[in-house]
Amino acid sequence: MVAEAQRGLVAKQDHLGDVVAAAAAAVAEADRTVEIVVGNVHGLHARPAARLVGLVNGFDAAVMLTDLDTGRGPVDAGSLSMVATLNAQQGHRLRVGASGSQAAEVLAAVEKLAAENFGDEAVEPAAPAAGGSGLDVAIGPAVLVGGEVDVSGYVAGDNELARLEEAVARAGEELRGLRDDSPEHGGIFEAHLALLTDRTMRDEVRASIAGGASAPTAWQHSYDTLATTFEALDDAYQRERAQDVRAIRDRVLRALVGAASDEPGEAAAAGAVGAGILVVPELDAATAATLDATRIAGIAVRAAGTTGHGVIVARSRGIPLITGIGPVEVRAGAIVAFDARSGVFEVAPDVDRVRATIAERRGERDQAIARADEPAITRDGRTVDVLVNVGVVQDAVEARGADGSGLVRTEVLFGDRRTPPSVDEQVDAFRAIARALGNNPITIRTWDVGGDKPLPFLPQDKEANPFLGERGLRVFRRRPDLLRDQLEAIRRTAAETPVHVMFPMVTTADEVAWALDQLGPRDGLEVGIMVEVPAAALRVGTLAKDLDFVSIGTNDLTQYTTAADRTNAAVAPLADGLDPAVLQLIDHVVRHAGVRVAVCGDLASDPQAAVLLAALGVAELSAVGPQVPLVKARLRQADLGQVDTAAVLAARDADQVRGLL
Length: 661
Description:
Layout: H1 2-10, H2 21-28, E1 32-37, H3 46-56, E2 62-67, E3 75-76, H4 80-84, E4 93-99, H5 103-115, E5 137-144, H6 160-181, H7 186-196, H8 199-210, H9 215-231, H10 236-239, H11 242-257, H12 264-271, E6 276-280, H13 285-290, E7 296-301, H14 309-316, E8 321-323, E9 335-339, E10 344-347, H15 351-370, E11 385-390, H16 393-398, E12 405-409, H17 410-413, H18 423-436, E13 442-445, H19 480-494, E14 499-503, H20 509-519, E15 526-531, H21 534-538, H22 540-543, E16 549-552, H23 554-562, H24 580-592, E17 596-599, H25 607-616, E18 620-623, H26 628-637, H27 645-649, H28 654-660
Parallel strand pairs: 5-6, 6-7, 7-8, 11-12, 11-18, 12-13, 13-14, 14-15, 15-16, 16-17, 17-18
Antiparallel strand pairs: 1-4, 2-3, 2-4, 5-9, 9-10
Helix pairs in contact: 1-2, 3-7, 6-7, 6-11, 8-9, 9-11, 15-26, 18-19, 25-26
């Protein structure tokens, strides 16, 4: 009786778990309490939360959770919707209260589960595995799956609750079948099952039906609300769990209206001649796991995001995939193509051109890989160092032919941490990268936070325009302790292997002086800055006076020069790194820096642009791993003296520049 009363009270609080007086009183009456710490990288997201819920529901006890670090809660630990949206992050302390005949037993079991990180293993955004063309390119007829379930023909009756229960049962059978058929992704489908049968959601839907709503209306409203709650969470990984909620919503709605289960393998077989490209609003895990890879050339996802369960599953199966194609109109059966590397999705492409590009790229890659370890010496005798950009250690492990790393993105390397990494942890990571690259020089960029680069252990206040606010080095003038710890880790690594350090988002000479003061004695350590804003490019001679090198970040330099956000489809075409204005700034930096100049932005990964950069005098190019062999191969073919840099710098626009290359 007490357990049911407590659950009923907690079920009435909102999905974000704000404290309500009645629930707080119920927890105050808990027979026993313990305190646990969340160790999971992404906190109590869907899968570990589902394990906790499953455990708790196996005992005769009412269990409540309160996040002591945020004050959120108490919430019903037997409800996945409540636990997952409590938003308990790594390092948070949770108070667990239990009442009932098995209160002691359930708390002991919860403590054990927490000590095992709730059985969770961090899942990183998956790198594309070999499959399809092997080149992140696909072409084929569009296979449309998903979209809103049409419930307009549903006729409500007197037995709405029974019809809903039947639909939920059917959905449960489908999910259990998927779980059994895909054991490697079983945890994902267990979480889906827990969402399907969540008692808080069940009570809410039943109450709506009792109030006169039809089963589809009640079900859709409750799960839409829950999805919106997930989308409001701080953690990007958690926000993408909203697609799991919508997948459960739609599975039950299809069962209610008698629609087919909408598994994509059947759609592809029926609607495509040869391998098709699946076009979906979102990619949920069930869809990704049931794909017949022999019938699907690739997947195009309208929504953005790289850590969704569906994206992870699809890439783990080696299926070419592009995300964030937006609302472009696509008809079923229309020929579409995409290049995930360039982010280009085309409807009605030139088929011969795309296929020729695939064949040509495959041939070029095979030849480039065969000579990847050879230096990039141009035909006129200039040696250009080609390095690799590193976000995770695996980037260094998989790099072929890289002469080192021109950019170690530390904010990516430790980007999932809710607590700052220790000096020792950073040293271990830097050592691993250096070893993977044969102890060639690595350039470590200090924490680059702000704009589109959140750092979970260093939350920032919301800004009206974050790209023009506290970014990069600016942030650490108020948290120098974090910067000093990182610099200590860099110095310790530099005692064992060649290491350079560079500071991001530097605009003034005062910022350079402050950064050098934080570093202290260099002891042979090479020091540089990123040149990412026009002001830094124009005064580079002053900024570089006490430096060893500068590295041009063409992504931000292009954005700030053209006043165009590349993630905004309306203005993205303006943000072109080959815009003559951007190239003029690069040329100015090379001629006035007085030190070695590198480029580590996207432009360095373009083999054609790489030749131009080298002709302008750039000494080092740092590219994404798969492009390193191709950049080196193109440089070997080039005679830099034949590049008409004057014409390029005087060109009308980026298209004219391309025509000159």
